[in-house]
């Protein structure tokens, strides 16, 4: 239902922004545990989709790494620059050029640059973009088929677009995030807020604790959620039809809830184990052995105080997952770095792991 709704909205968006200089929404991508095929017990029931935004004609996006260090995860600023469109045509007419056409001509055509609408200074503003996108959905709602049977209510949020849909006793919650793709890769910067999301959606942030609860309105968070979702789809095509890899993840995140290891940690461990244990060995009759493999991998990582990020610096990813050119060469992020820095936290984690093995 979520996928069909977003696709219907996208077709209407194409008409709405075709003669404007607002960002161009692309096909929505489902992200998080619900779209990966598993959901932990603490899943909040929200289906999250990422809508990539392309720059409008006459504009281009440049990603600038934000070195402010507000979060353990990397943040970027999306710098908007104007480009010459004097030689381009649109529907047989010469396109307006914000660089070379006179201000009087631009005002006569009632055309505003993206820099004048959704930017703060030279940078794309998350909160302004969120407000614009929400207004776009409001004005498009009556034109989508779902409006005949579903009632739509907006929930307040400054960095994403939250929708509550109801139909009789049925209800559906959708959170729309927007992002800018890094080149042609599967890595995006997104509008996700800094608060950790439930349901394994910490793929939008680092598994390490945040250093601050504040994020500037021009800060966009780097996410690997799309790459991880593609990895699970790749695995689904390779494993036996009765594979239990997602059941392992669901079981561990449910029965070990509240034990100190987050859903994102279990997910990262599983993804690493899937690249080390032959995929032919994930049949139902081997369920218990695979659980022990996952526990053993976690135990080793705790002992050496190192759990590597699955995407950053991983040179063994499937070829279909596209990364920015420099990303496979970077030093993998250690998600257990805080254990290496804090002996007391490491002792506590090892004690916890012993209790988990007993359970």
TrEMBL record:
Q: In which compartments does the protein localize? A: Membrane
Query: What Pfam family is a match, any one?
Result: Mab-21_C
How is this protein named in the record? IPIL1 protein
Listed A to Z, the keywords are: Membrane, Signal, Transmembrane, Transmembrane helix
- Is Protein biosynthesis one of the keywords UniProt gives this record? no
Q: What is this protein's gene name?
A: Itpripl1_0
Q: Describe its membrane topology.
A: Single-pass type I membrane protein
Q: Which family does it belong to?
A: Belongs to the ITPRIP family.
Q: What is the lineage of its organism?
A: Eukaryota, Metazoa, Chordata, Craniata, Vertebrata
Q: Which domain of life is it from?
A: Eukaryota
UniProt cross-references to PANTHER family, sorted A to Z: CELL FATE DETERMINING PROTEIN MAB21-RELATED (PTHR10656), INOSITOL 1,4,5-TRISPHOSPHATE RECEPTOR-INTERACTING PROTEIN-LIKE 1 (PTHR10656:SF40)
A single Gene Ontology CC annotation of this entry is: membrane
**Annotated organism of origin:** Acrocephalus arundinaceus (Great reed-warbler)
Q: Domain named Mab-21-like HhH/H2TH-like: which ranges?
A: 260-311
